[in-house]
């Protein structure tokens, strides 16, 4: 969307002011793109990890994928509740994600752990910033959604990083 285009809202009786809903939809859409990228990065690691910790990491990355799928679904549903249209297309995700690019050249468990930890850390930072933005805008429900996601991301980061400590 260009700066001159105005996001069109779907009709809703949600009583949040339109400007707040527009800001939250933009915030949620950015996080949605990152959550979808996070999920695909976990699958990249899940499919390609090799080494002595294979089975533990293979299962961990599959669990991480499930968690990221839940985050993306919750973010998209909140966005739609506010009158927006969730855009989870591959084209949009590739164009707008803020996560570091995941290399298709890595194979070892350590390398996958490092790469996925970097993605989780970046996503966690964005989510924490979004908590503050939603709270400042007066949208406690969106702030609460981001808070729950933040707790989950921090827990998954702990699980992933523990493999290289």
Q: Which architecture does the CATH hierarchy give at level 2?
A: Up-down Bundle
Mean pLDDT: 94
* Low-confidence spans: 1-5
Which structural class do you get from the secondary structure elements? mainly alpha
What multimeric state do the chains show?
Answer: single chain
The level 1 CATH classification is Mainly Alpha
CATH fold node name: Ferritin
The CATH homologous superfamily corresponds to Ferritin, core subunit, four-helix bundle
By DSSP (H or I, 4+ residues per run), the number of helices equals 5
Q: How many strand elements? A: 0
Secondary-structure element pattern, one letter each: HHHHH
How far apart the termini lie comes to: 43 Å
Number of domains: 1
Rg is 17 Å
Proportion in helices = over 70%
Q: Strand percentage, roughly? A: under 5%
Describe the structure.
With 165 residues, this protein is mainly α. Helices cover 71% and strands 0% of the residues.
Task: Looking at this protein, list some descriptive labels.
165 residues, Ferritin, 71% helix, disordered N terminus
Task: Describe the secondary structure blueprint for this structure.
Layout: H1 18-48, H2 54-81, H3 90-96, H4 109-137, H5 140-161
Helix pairs in contact: 1-2, 1-3, 1-4, 2-5, 4-5
């Amino acid at each position: 969307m260009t700066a001159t285009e105005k996001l069109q809202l779907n009709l809703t009786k949600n009583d949040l002011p339109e400007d707040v809903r527009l800001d939250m939809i933009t915030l949620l859409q950015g996080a949605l793109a990152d959550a979808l990228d996070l999920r695909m990065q976990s699958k990249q690691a899940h499919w390609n990890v090799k080494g002595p910790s294979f089975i533990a990491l293979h299962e961990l990355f599959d669990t991480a994928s499930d968690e990221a799928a839940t985050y993306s679904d919750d973010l998209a549903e909140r966005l739609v509740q506010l009158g927006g249209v969730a855009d989870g297309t591959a084209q949009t995700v590739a164009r707008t994600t803020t996560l570091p690019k995941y290399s298709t050249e890595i194979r070892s468990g350590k390398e996958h752990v490092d790469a996925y930890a970097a993605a989780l850390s970046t996503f966690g930072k964005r989510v924490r910033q979004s908590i503050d933005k939603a709270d400042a805008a007066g949208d406690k429900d969106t702030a609460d959604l981001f808070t729950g996601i933040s707790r989950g991301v921090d827990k998954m980061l702990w699980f992933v990083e523990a493999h290289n400590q």
